[in-house]
Amino acid sequence: MCNHFICITCGTQTECLSTQPKSCLICNDKRQYINPNGQKWTTLEHMITSQKFKNTINYEESDLYSIKTEPEVGIGQTAYMIQNNGFNLLWDCITYIDQNTINEINSLGGIQAIALSHPHYYSSQVEWAELFKIPIYIHEDDREWVSRPSEKIHFWSGEQLELSIGLRLHRLGGHFKGGTVLEWEKGNEQKGILFSGDIIQVVADPNWVSFMYSYPNLIPLPAATVERIAKRVAKLKFDRIYNAFYRIVQMDGKHVVQKSADRYIKALNGTLFDT
Length: 275
Description:
Helix 4 packs antiparallel against helix 5 (253-269). The longest helix has 17 residues, at 253-269. The protein is an alpha+beta fold and 275 residues long. It is 19% helix and 31% strand. It has a 7-stranded mixed β-sheet with strand order 4-5-6-7-8-9-10, covered by helices on one side. A 6-stranded mixed β-sheet has the order 11-12-13-14-19-20, covered by helices on one side. A 3-stranded antiparallel β-sheet has the order 2-1-3.
């Protein structure tokens, strides 16, 4: 008998194994960390039978819902369900899923695909894909970080992929080589929404964003990488930004990214402040 073990620190699920792995592929990387108390594992079955967890699906704005687990699991990210002209997309993924979650999502029209920003949110993506019988879209540059392989996973290539009219994936790199954001032209009353995961991170002051190679270990990105990301984003249609932790830039998001990139580069180059 084998189990799909889930790392308690990051919430990522493994392939089917007979014994618990010694380490987690995702956590054993300089962008993440191994729990100081040691590597620990659980399973989705154990989480469900414990009756400790619940997913809350909240209406955010027209054709957009957030999905969040309480108490937090792993990194604690929020997933989003986007309804785009009959095509429902799950943007990023969370670890916990149960029958109540499935029923509620189906009552909203179900989901037709899953798309991921980067490996930290792969979580139990294959579990979700198999339950809803849908594909997963991951950029091929992050193939090596998939800990549970599946025929449901479609590795896309290049810099852009349109999943549905006006709903596009863009590879920006940075945090991960295949780091991806989602552009939704129809969102925010046709002004556009950018779903950034933490490829672009909305910070405590929602008038600014930031960029990092590692957030928990505070490793910055090079100035040239941030400049490249900002130039790519400038071509997209959006006014609002949702990150992976329910922080939102409500308006003027494109300008926020550009001024934040400028501030970041000045800080790296030593011209922002004197200390």
